[in-house]
Write a structure and sequence with these properties.
Layout (H helix, E strand, L loop, with lengths): L2 H18 L15 E7 L6 H4 L1 H15 L8 E7 L4 H14 L4 E4 L3 H13 L3 E4 L16 E3 L4 H12 L6 E5 L4 H17 L4 E6 L9 H9 L4 E4 L4 H10 L4 H4 L2 E4 L5 H7 L8 E4 L15 H14 L5 H20 L4 H8 L3 E4 L2 E5 L6 E2 L2 E7 L8 E8 L1 H4 L3 H4 L5
Parallel strand pairs: 1-2, 1-3, 3-4, 4-5, 6-7, 6-8, 8-9, 9-10
Antiparallel strand pairs: 10-14, 11-12, 12-13, 14-15
Helix pairs in contact: 3-13, 4-5, 6-7, 13-14
Length: 417
């Protein structure tokens, strides 16, 4: 057989193989690979939905940016979000639906700590990586940790410990607490008072008030706390709970009768914007995973942070809530993890995620290999009136290094498996 005929046969076989293998469609154009699917869980209904919906807004912005730049490993990203209603049973049902029906590659989000602990078991059962971007129970990266869960936002131990370090420098000894009576509230208080007592053994707890999550009437709890005559009050109320509490406490003279109100989620944008001048500026110290607004600069004052705020405002016409930024950052964590692993193989992804460090709008995030918990700096601050923004900004603030805020691994109770 002439040599040119042999060459022709080889070429024909190669082309037929490419077509039958699916690399080219009938028009001779490369077929697009299936998208990488992210399954979001968020509170999309009920009294917390106004806040809950801002998480998916951050995720959608990140997905849009990533797809505009070519996707991840040449594949587009698709984001599907389901309503977990802040209920564990609903969260479990929706997580199964996302994994088994929608065929997502990752789960991301979750605000309620109770929902998170339940959904973590579903992720482990189905060997699907879950990236937590909000729910803060320390148990999730403590005694309940598992290989398939990564958290890219602070946990309650980090938020509360950092606040305790700051409050230990102040003169108050008689403390009370008001916190929602569920996993997050107890985790915040246990970590705050446990750390504070180690630093100041003479601290005394004079009252504990535990309203249910979503309570609307705080009057009996306000009376209970005031009757105990504390010098300072620690709060783990958040979102509408914090807003309602502050509005109801003021007519009781609550903030005139205490010297300090330290609140773990006190710098949520929704809270700051809604309360505005009703905030007792001289006594209100709070934290948030992301509230970058000081009067003279952003925190941190980086191009990454400025670009995110500008992009978010352009997309939604408002400033970002902390959960918006955290979910946005969680999507980018998944991107970095996939690119480092070079594939969607779950074992390779887990290995790639452990010890991964990346830049987010709020700063550098480092994933602790032993617990899969992010380690990052924590900001606490006191608010004041603003001449620059249409809401109060940080009049003073303290940045607690992530290495100090994060408990030692041996104290977490995490036995990774």
């Amino acid at each position: 057989m002439p040599s040119q005929n042999i060459k022709l046969i080889v070429v024909v076989f190669c082309v037929v193989g490419l077509v039958s293998g699916g690399i080219f469609d009938g028009q001779g154009i490369a077929q697009e690979q299936p998208p990488i699917k992210l399954g979001g869980l968020a509170i999309l209904s009920g009294p917390l939905s106004g806040y809950g919906k801002t998480g998916p807004m951050g995720a959608e912005l990140a997905v849009k940016e990533i797809n505009a730049r070519g996707g991840i490993l040449g594949r587009k990203v698709e984001y599907i979000v389901r309503d977990d209603e802040a209920k564990p049973d609903t969260g479990v049902r929706q997580a199964r639906r996302l994994i088994l029906e929608d065929k997502v590659n990752f789960l991301i989000g979750v605000t309620s700590s109770a929902v998170l602990l339940a959904v973590m078991e579903i992720a482990k059962e189905n060997k699907t990586i879950l990236v937590g971007t909000d729910a803060a129970t320390a148990r999730a990266t403590g005694e309940k940790c598992n290989r398939y869960f990564f958290r890219t936002s602070n946990n309650a131990a980090q938020d509360a410990r950092s606040g305790a370090f700051i409050m230990a420098e102040k003169p108050y000894k008689k403390w009370a607490v008001i916190a929602p009576d569920y996993e997050y509230g107890h985790s915040m208080w246990d970590n705050f008072i446990g750390t504070l007592k180690k630093l100041k053994p003479d601290v005394e707890v004079v009252a504990e008030a535990w309203p249910k999550l979503g309570a609307e009437d705080y009057s009996p709890y306000i009376t209970q706390v005031l009757q105990a005559q504390p010098e300072a009050v620690f709060s783990a109320l958040w979102s509408a709970g914090n807003i309602n509490f502050v509005k109801q406490a003021k007519p009781h003279g609550f903030f005139d009768k205490i010297q300090m109100f330290a609140i773990g989620a006190g710098l949520m944008y929704e809270v700051v914007r809604t309360l505005g001048p009703e905030i007792p500026f001289d006594k209100y110290w709070g934290s948030s995973r992301y509230f970058p607004f000081a009067e003279d600069k952003l925190i941190p004052d980086t191009p990454r942070n400025r670009e995110f705020i500008e992009a978010y405002k352009a997309a939604y016409g408002d400033y970002p809530e902390y959960i918006s930024e955290e979910t946005y950052a969680g999507v980018y964590f998944i991107k970095h993890m996939i690119e480092k692993a070079g594939s969607l193989d779950v074992e390779a992804l887990i290995k790639a995620g452990e010890g991964l460090s990346f830049e987010a709008p709020e700063g550098t995030k480092y994933i602790q290999p032993e617990t899969h918990q992010v380690v990052e700096d924590v900001v606490w601050g006191r608010l004041g009136p603003s001449q620059k923004y249409p809401f109060p900004t940080l009049a003073e603030y303290v940045i607690v290094p992530g290495s100090k805020a994060t408990p030692p691994v041996e104290e977490t109770g995490c036995k990774m498996q």
